[in-house]
Structures are given as C-alpha cells and as structure tokens.
Amino acid sequence: RSTIRWYGIPNDQMGKIASIDVKACVFGNSTQKNRCFTKQVMVKFEAAPLSEPTIDRTRWPLGQVRYLREGSSFRVRLPVRNPNSADAALSVTIEPDSIRSEVQFQSGELVITPKAAGFRQFNVNVRIPQGLSRSESFSFEALPRNWSRVLVLGDGLRDPEVAGTLALIPGAQVVNPLMQELSDRTLALRDAVVIGTSLMSDPAAITAATPAIEQIKVVMIQTPRLDVAGSSFWTQMGSLGLSLQGRVSQVLGSNFPGLNKLPVRPAQSSGLAAPSMALLLAGTLTSESQNPSLLSISKGTSCQALLNMTYKPVSSLPPYDLALVAKCDEGGKRWIISGAEWADLQSQSAVDRGVVANWMKEVLK
Asked: What pTM, to 2 d.p., does this model score?
C-alpha cells in the first residue's frame, strides 16, 4: 500500500478538479518493468483547516519564574511541533533579539546563560510554512554569582550563634523566617539549610521554617535543644535509625565530668579529617550550650555518626564514644543532626584552627 503526497499546492488551484494519470508497472522479465497499467484519477483540491504549532510547557509551566545563577548555563526541554505535518519545517525565534545572546533554542531545548544578574522576560515564537504561529512568554531571574548555596535560619546577625555559624560558613545568607517569608526566590539555588538553637527554641519559628526544611536537600539542625523538635520529627528520624538519648546531664547523671573532660573527635567512618588534638565544647555560645544532647544510632541503617564525645568514667577502663552528631540519608535528602552548636567547638591547637569550618563545608556538600 502506497501513499502519494503533494506539498506546496498553489492557492489558485483550491476548489478546482485536476486529472492525474497514475501509471504502475511490474517486471515483465528480470530486467524490464514492461507490464504497466495506467489509471486516470480525478482529484479535487480542497483547503484543509490548519492548526497552529504547539509548544509543550510541561517542564516550564505558565507563570513560573525560574531562578538561575549569573554566568551558569541552564537547559530545559521545550518540545515544539507542527500538528499538520511531522515533516514540515518549523521556524523558532527568540524575542526580543536583544536577549538572544543569553537565550537560544537548540534541538528542542532552551539554553539560557545569563550574563548579568536581574529579571528577564522573553518570548518563544514558532511558525509553520503556511504562516500560522504561536508565541509563549517565559520569565527568569538571574541571581548574583555569589548567591550562597547555604541558608542560615536564625534571629539575625547580632545573634552570637548566627555570628559563630557565619564564621564557619563565610558568605552564607541569614534569614529570620519570622521576619522574612521563605519564598521561592529566597530558597532558590540553596543546597543546604542550617538551623540552630535560637530558631529551635521558638515553635512559631520552626513552623515558619517548614518550607526550607521540606525543599532543601541538606538540612542541618545543630542545637542542644533537640528535645523540642517534636514527636513527629523523631518518629521520622526513628524510621531512619536515629533516636535521642537525652541531654548529657541526663544521660551521665551525677557522673557528668564537665565538657572539658569530654573530648570531641570525628567518628572513624565519618570521612572527616582528624585534628591533631581532640576538640572541646566551650559551653558558652548560648544559654543551652553547657548541656548538649546525645544521640543513639541503630546499626545497619542509613544513619552514621559524624562526631563523638569520648567518655571515660573509670581511669582503669577504656573510654567509650557518645554520638554527638549524626548523618542520615533519606532518599535524595540528607539530615545532619547535631546535639551541639558547631560554633561552640574549640580547637586545642593552633594547627587545628580551621578544622571545624572544614568539617562544616564537608557535611554540607
């Protein structure tokens, strides 16, 4: 079964009837097609209704503003189609022409490379040979190159805990979720969020921080007040293999020797570089720092210890480790749960002065 196709029929032929001779031949012998049959066919040319081209916005819905980083390339599929003929060519143009140095259409994809920070709007125009066209509008904002991948949630820059965290993560952006909405723009391009004691001490602030906790892939909670995280949070952590033992004063009771007798070191399987000397918690950063929380990690789960406190109750017996910081993986999300504020960790040797900042950088990757 064959099909005869005729493209580019002149407009002045529409509504007219034409006689077409169709000749079909087969082989009469091995070398000649000499057995032929000719049939006259009457064809009437009628204009068929044409449909405008389509632009599939599945991966960039109408009304969505994309947030990109200045100088970085972004690619997204944008299928375009001529519903009248899969073979006919399509013309795709980007308007205005002033944005074409930043936005191109290549092989069914939009490729965007913002050269400067700021808001942009552009149109994708698609046209078929018969002149019908479709246009769709898109918007994006290019955020500055130095837009931090880490978001710190806390009371503000004057908070000693926030200031201490910023000393470990230079350039991180600080937001008080009670004062500033955690909008799509605020959360854009963030890989990690750090939450500390000032926020965990306020239930309203925890509620306001929910969008960041749910949307950002690495969540670090660092506070001795892990007990206020709530039952639903600890049920979730329990399903991953992590539970709360309690505050160190509760766990050790009358045997609590003081923080200066509980050295802090990376767990063997943590992947964190060991310092030349164990670190100590100063216990002075916040009103809660003197009494950190300890964790319990189930074996064979997605959780593992990152930092341990070493406790030696009897000098004649070997010490044992108490989990202070743990990492848990949940699908594509990572939780860093710390029973102490990292800015409260103090190195005991000048050569270890940057070790906590390096640890922080490593766990927030």
From this structure: 0.83
